Amino acid sequence: MYSYIKGKIEYKAPDYFVMDNNGMGFKIFSSLSTIDKLEIGQEVKAYTYMYVREDLICLYGFSSPEELRVFELLISVSGIGPKVASAVLSSLSPSKFGLAVIIGDIQVLKSVPGIGLKTAQRMILELKDKMKTEEALDVSQVEIYNINDNVSEAINALQVLGYSAIESMKVLKSIDVNNLEVEDIIKQSLKNLSK
Fold first, then answer.
1. What is the CATH number of domain 133-193?
2. Global pTM?
3. Which position among 77, 90, 96, 138 has the lowest Cβ density within 10 Å, counted as fewest Cβ atoms?
4. What Å distances lie between residue 175 and 62, 136, 145, 168, 193, CA to CA?
């Protein structure tokens, strides 16, 4: 319903913040990583998701489209609700989460409070299938300088975060990937994609 809301931060709590938008106060639940970045009185843009159940309507908001994309992916997994999704985003950055899903790193996912072995396995199983397979390309056939496993994993992780393979490869051409770890490549890509 709402793609994003711009407004001034009026109040912060451990799991939500209140944003004033033209005299209307929105209570927006979020991750610790987003809430930590906010300051009272600061004008911000929150990328939002309205969660609706028979007995509940809540607004969730995040500081970046990537965080929102991961949140939406997580709540699409059977057995994972918005509170668990927010807990994941409180513990892992979107790039770290995307990488964990791509390489099947169960230990990283289990490091999130409330995530056990079965839930971590379900996340990996269900979210790998949600990648944009219609745009998946054989990255070994694409001309990117210094293509290697790290670059391939970074492209896959960016796809999990909602970027197409073509967008990902274009942005990677503008980055010096020499001696960069996968997570650093992803972080730099996200920075360049948001420009």
1. 1.10.8
2. 0.73
3. 138
4. 26, 21, 9, 11, 11
